[in-house]
């Protein structure tokens, strides 16, 4: 390419950058005005954010991919929202966990993060109003449900207002670039489970030790060359560790789903989910009878999970996700019918299906 041609393209980029800059600030000005109209009301509007991101993906002509433009607009909205009111998000810490990555993926980099020591503390912090929203893991494609989150959901006054789906890549991390002489591998129990086969093949005789978080495992590995950790990119970066082996999760589509909790749920975005928890009366065929109103009204179930109720021996509660919003006529109808049949029903919230 000639120098002339290069200069022409760079001049064009310089001119476009000024336009982009002007558009960004005009957009931010509108967001600020919207903030004034909202007054002291709810600033974060998950349904509107989902609609903005879906539209951008739909109308995107390329060559940038839909995923890429959606990520860029995620950050633009994050910055615009912070002009209206900076948000603080509680998540399972310490810094470097997948919960932190999920929080950033959903709220963008302008949000302030508050790492908490346990899932219980994440709930407590959000319930006390110390933070605006919380992000908690709820299920992993390899390891299944996160029981503590499900248990706390049944009791909390918080509502689910969003979901985040995160691809989980696990790496073997150490502070020295060799697989020789590793005495222990630290990680969170879920992550050790996700890499079970890899560990059996590559480090069969090394002791596996579960700790409170992957970030804690990375911290231990950073402090002592005898130890390795299994953790993700964020922890590797934070503790400056070498990736001795990358993407060691047994299941190639290893994915964790997180819930966003807050004092309100979301209004309808046009493509939503509703989460419910209920218990069946203790009699034969009760679960089948309980769920029949959903099928009869054409409400699709996207998740069904049972959990001991912790009240009576061999009694269970059921976590059910359905397609649609709790204000959609057929969902309203189905919930009414469920209430007649179930011993207990709680609507945990309606929220947009994850876009990113
Ligand atoms: O539309 C709004 O309610 C806004 O506040 C604007 C905006 C945006 O930047 O598009 C910002 C924050 C909200 O969560 C949703 C959208």
UniProtKB/TrEMBL annotation:
Its EC number is 4.2.1.51, 5.4.99.5. Residues 1-88 form the Chorismate mutase domain. It is found in: Cytoplasm. SMART domains: CM_2. Residues 88-263 form the Prephenate dehydratase domain. InterPro entries: ACT-like_dom_sf, ACT_dom, Chor_mutase/pphenate_deHydtase, Chorismate_II_sf, CM_dom_sf, CM_II_prokaryot, G/b/e-P-prot_chorismate_mutase, Preph_deHydtase. Pathway: Amino-acid biosynthesis; L-phenylalanine biosynthesis; phenylpyruvate from prephenate: step 1/1; Metabolic intermediate biosynthesis; prephenate biosynthesis; prephenate from chorismate: step 1/1. Residues 275-352 form the ACT domain. GO terms for molecular function: prephenate dehydratase activity. NCBIfam families: CM_P2, PRK11898.1. PANTHER family: PREPHENATE DEHYDRATASE P PROTEIN (PTHR21022), PREPHENATE DEHYDRATASE-RELATED (PTHR21022:SF19). Catalyzes the Claisen rearrangement of chorismate to prephenate and the decarboxylation/dehydration of prephenate to phenylpyruvate. This is Bifunctional chorismate mutase/prephenate dehydratase. The gene is pheA.
